[in-house]
Amino acid sequence: MALYDPGMADGAILLVGGASTRMGRPKADLDWHGTPLSAHMAALLANAVRGPVVAVAAPEQPDPALPPGVELVRDAVAGDGPLRGLEAGLAALAGRAERAFAAAVDLPRLDPVLVRGLLGRLDDATAAAPFVGGHRQPLAAAYRVDAALTQARALLAGGERGLQPLLDRLDAVELDADALLALPGVAAADPALRSLAGANTPAEWEHLRAGS
Description:
Spore Coat Polysaccharide Biosynthesis Protein SpsA, Chain A; 10 strands; 33% helix
């Protein structure tokens, strides 16, 4: 397994749109200890990669809070699902990054070491995604930009809107908890894999926020 190579052009994609109906408000606007969640996550990703970071918002969504240098792009079609958002981010990085880490906005404890570890698994795959608790996490995953963009566009053209079929179409490696902890530095930096903890309801958010 190759180590993360900081000399490669790696980017990151942050999805900040979505209805967030169970949360009752946009997740991007949630407060993470004095910082809007979108700004916290974008800064985290910018610290994890050397290349461009893009945040993808819905067409009519107000501009989310983002740190300087993070680019804002928008879905081409409103309400068209997370695959559309990922496709917009991949398109924005095409020609500028070979690999990209894609993250949902509600992963405030995401550790840059895990980001770099998953990017490093792309030496022999076109995607690398956690498989923890019986679920794959395509929005805490690394992708080869060109391959993922080609397949995302093919799926969208066929009417698909979810992310799981994208992993099915790619040469994806799935990492369980043991495999994630075996990535360079992850066991020391994030032994409980808190990087993958998200929230869908106000109660889950308060629990996540209080535990940091």
